[in-house]
Amino acid sequence: MSDVLAGSDLLTNSYGESFAQLVRGEGCHVWDVDGKRYLDFLSGIAVNALGHAHPAFVAAVCEQAATLAHVSNFFVTPPQLKLANTLLRLSGAGEDGRVFFANSGAEANEAALKLARLHGQAQGKSTILALGGGFHGRTMGALALTSNPKYREPFEPLPGGIEHIDPTVEALESALDDTIAALFVEPIQGEVGVKPLSEEFLVRARELTAERGALLVIDEVQTGIGRAGGWFGFQAAGILPDVVTLAKGLGGGVPIGACIAYEPAASLFYPGSHGTTFGGNPLSCHVAQTVLDVIASDNLVENARVRGEQLTAAILERSHPLIRGVRGKGLLLGVLLTEDVAPALVAAARELGLIINSPAPNVVRIAPPLIIGDEEIEEFLTLFFAAADRIVGDTP
Ligand SMILES: Cc1ncc(COP(=O)(O)O)c(C=O)c1O
Description:
By secondary structure, the protein is an alpha/beta fold.
């Protein structure tokens, strides 16, 4: 083996070739092993809400690691209870709501899927609906909820009883009958190119699920915790769901997921019905609580909303020939391109020192830390349009 460790020699090939080896981060920047500096406008795919090595985040990790990092779920801990209380308050689930802690978005959705099954069994309803274009994770249950055949087909058979419908009000109205146990939706479908669901869709979904006795499960793994310019994406539609799933930005960089159940779904789990060794560990919970505290004290939800508008206006103002629009909300934006060159644009940006990604061939996703200000936006615009110019220059 050579002295320089390479991912391709050591790791399974599930992520393809790695772009660089990153060794350090500070604020909105990261550095690779060769000392190259990047502006991180992807935040580990909507995770690093406070950027990298935020002093409060670092202090929280150290404090809790030096106090109590892990105990079994035969016990509860103050950080876990405090975080559950905060999430119930922020989500509007209130004192009748209950939280199940997991370690990732997929796991939070597995918990939600189990709630949906328990609800369905209790009510004699066998089918769960999810949306075309939806993404809910890579574990088998979450994959069954995910619509993309490229992700699903190699792993079939997947858990059954799940049907996908178009994300339109018409499709919803014709599919959501009395046999449906639950409907899973994301307020913005991040993985298919940052596509927001209309508020009308969310409102109708709430009305119909309530009328027909189905649970409305909202996957806020990507949109939640300030990312889309509100604590939760569903709040813009003025509705409350039955179940909400969270991960990514909640931990700001430590692995944590949460499944928040509103009454009556809050009463569905019973002893032995679900569990995970690491779920709700005091280390992740204390760090997540600290992330939420900083988001609140530094007005970062509002910052996400305002900076998202600022970024959108600045991108459109340039009238670049490669760009035909911007969609999304807050700091979860998709830049729509006039051609299918998003992967090339992302590569050109990376070469220039900017990290973004392409969830679709003609869409570039921007999801910077919620702490960005004028300086980071200026740096982004310079690098992004230099990359876009390169692509236009290359196009015959
Ligand atoms: C909406 C949504 N749900 C679930 C997941 C899965 O989360 P994780 O990768 O933490 O399992 C993701 C990840 O991108 C997501 O965007």
